[in-house]
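Q: Got a minute? One more chain.
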Amino acid sequence: MKVRITKPDGDLYDGEATLLQLPGTGGLFEMLERHAPIISALQAGSIRLVDADAHTHRFEIRGGVVKGKNNEILILVQ
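A: Always. Here it is, folded:
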């Protein structure tokens, strides 16, 4: 799936991923390829992303929003 993680001063990540783990306001949740459409608030915590080469990336955030549809995920963070 195509993932873009961006904050006001630029992108943190823009590329392919096979798994996302996100800090939702109700707790951690995961997104995989072909995830149902979603819009959700994010709380402070860590985003875990596994890229197409099976490398794990982590991004610390203070909050944000995720929007996903048709294997395209946009994450706006602070």
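A: The first strand starts at residue 2 and ends at 7.
Q: Perfect, thanks.
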